[in-house]
Amino acid sequence: MGIIVFYEGNNATQNIVQTVEDEPGQNFRPVKNDEIRSAKLFSVRPGCNVVMYDSPDGSMNDDFCNIMVKRSAPEYTVGTFERSYEDEFVIVQYIRNNGLDGKVSRIKIN
Predict the structure, then answer these.
(1) CA atoms of 86 and 102, how far apart (whole Å)
(2) What is the total count of domains within the chain?
(3) This prediction's pTM
């Protein structure tokens, strides 16, 4: 089982806001609203989809970021949710409205 750690600062700095397993079917509000700015993925399974939403009800009318894990890594940092890119480990798609870092209000994991 992989672990996802959400951080208060960019590039996995400052305080840990919340830690969850990569089990599919999760849909939750973070323990602290509008705090999360980055994440570290520890051995998260390939095919895992992590979506962070600005909207508390998970609406796609506001900012959201979709992280799709292509290949598991012992440790991988997603330093910001406000940049789209792809590498050998992840595909990150950011849909911008007015910014997402520090404004995450809902998280879905599948």
Answers:
(1) 22
(2) 1
(3) 0.97
Element (DSSP H or E) covering residue 107: strand 106-109
> Can you give the residue range of the structural domain that contains 53?
3-109
Can you give the CATH number for the domain in which 78 is found? 2.60.20.10
Q: Quick one: DSSP state of residue 8?
A: S
Query: What confidence tens digit (pLDDT) does each residue in 32-86 have?
Result: 999 999 999 999 999 999 999 999 999 999 999 999 999 999 999 999 999 999 9
Q: 93: which 2 tokens?
A: 């798609």
Here the contacts of 8-13 (C-beta below 8 Å, separation 24 or greater) are 8/35, 8/36, 8/37, 9/37, 9/38, 10/37, 10/38, 10/79, 10/80, 10/101, 11/38, 11/77, 11/79, 11/80, 12/38, 12/39, 12/40, 12/77, 12/79, 13/38
pLDDT of res. 50 = 98
Residue 98 CB neighbours (<10 A): 8
